[in-house]
Specification:
Length: 319
């Protein structure tokens, strides 16, 4: 009798608190529900939480350089390169990146509302998505297919921004691309030598120096075993973008700004530059541009030189 009364009271309390719990990722063990003999409370809570995530949301993404739209087949300029104030002209060669772990930031600027999006068989899979802006025109050599948005459901309410991981979660990073579902089956987004994916594939040529810059970042030192999911150097940044005027998914987009990404970056060298997970030069060897310039791209993306997220980035913004 006493347990029945207590259980009913606790269920009432749980339902009253559901809107608050919807602001974070639900963890039943933290709610003290996992050890009960009667798990009906757990089931009710999960069902109710699922019902809360019933507001459709589509997040739009873009690639820009300041006020310019960046797209294959057209050049664009940056004005913060080299020393932070030099104008250079770039020609895009690839524009693709994975994101995962997406949350809406509530109107209070602090709370994080989960976003659930299912598998669409092409661009979205198990909480991860590929944003693809290259269309095989101009110098781009991927495919004509593009994807600039992610669709799912979230909690109803006002929003001030979005937070997401730039990259794949460890649980997906070490799949075999030959058997993985789309969008994890692309050879061009995979490193066979590291048994993992390129989280970013952003490439451009400085038309004045003809230097091709490849910005490819992905996890490193993952044990060399496809069954291993822990990488010593994750190179997976946390991107948080907010707007003081609020974020409206129907009118705002999340923009990767190449002008900000290349702030202070020297693109004028003669040799092509591959910015991949960084390795120190051999003892006694001079530090090349991979060591002096590539970390600048990392900083703007919110990563340190070891591939750890810093929590501060400037490459992405709300437009």
């Amino acid at each position: 009798m006493f347990y029945s009364i207590f259980a009913r009271a606790r269920r009432a309390l749980i339902f009253a608190m559901l809107p608050a719990f919807a602001l974070v990722f639900l963890n039943c063990s933290q709610l003290g529900l996992e050890s009960e003999e009667d798990d009906s409370d757990t089931n009710l809570l999960l069902l109710s939480a699922a019902a809360i995530l019933n507001t459709p949301v589509t997040l739009n993404f873009s690639v820009v350089s300041g006020t310019q739209t960046v797209q294959c087949g057209s050049t664009f300029t940056v004005n913060k390169a080299v020393n932070g104030s030099t104008t250079r002209t770039f020609n895009p060669e690839d524009l693709r990146f994975y994101i995962s772990n997406i949350r809406m930031i509530g109107a209070d600027g602090v709370s994080e509302l989960p976003v659930s999006f299912g598998n669409d068989g092409v661009w979205q899979y198990n909480g991860a998505a590929l944003l693809d802006f290259e269309d095989a025109t101009g110098n781009c050599s991927g495919s004509t297919d593009t994807n600039t948005r992610i669709s799912g459901t979230t909690v109803a309410g006002g929003y001030s921004g979005v937070v997401f991981d730039l990259g794949l979660p460890e649980s997906l990073n070490q799949l075999s691309n030959s058997t993985a579902p789309s969008p994890l089956n692309l050879n061009q987004m995979y490193w066979s030598w590291s048994i993992g994916y390129k989280f970013t594939k952003i490439e451009f040529t400085d038309t004045g120096s003809t230097r091709l810059v490849r910005s490819h970042f992905g996890s490193l030192n993952c044990g060399g075993d496809i069954s291993s999911n822990t990488c010593a150097n994750p190179y997976r940044s946390s991107v948080r973008v907010t707007s003081t005027s609020g974020f409206d998914p129907t009118t705002n987009a999340i923009a990767l700004d190449i002008n900000e990404l290349t702030n202070g970056f020297d693109s004028t060298g003669g040799a092509n530059l591959s910015c991949m997970p960084l390795k120190a030069p051999p003892a006694g060897a001079p530090a090349g541009d991979e060591v002096t310039e590539c970390p600048k791209l990392l900083t703007q993306m919110g990563l340190d030189s070891s591939g750890n997220a810093t929590g501060t980035q400037s490459a992405f913004a709300i437009r």
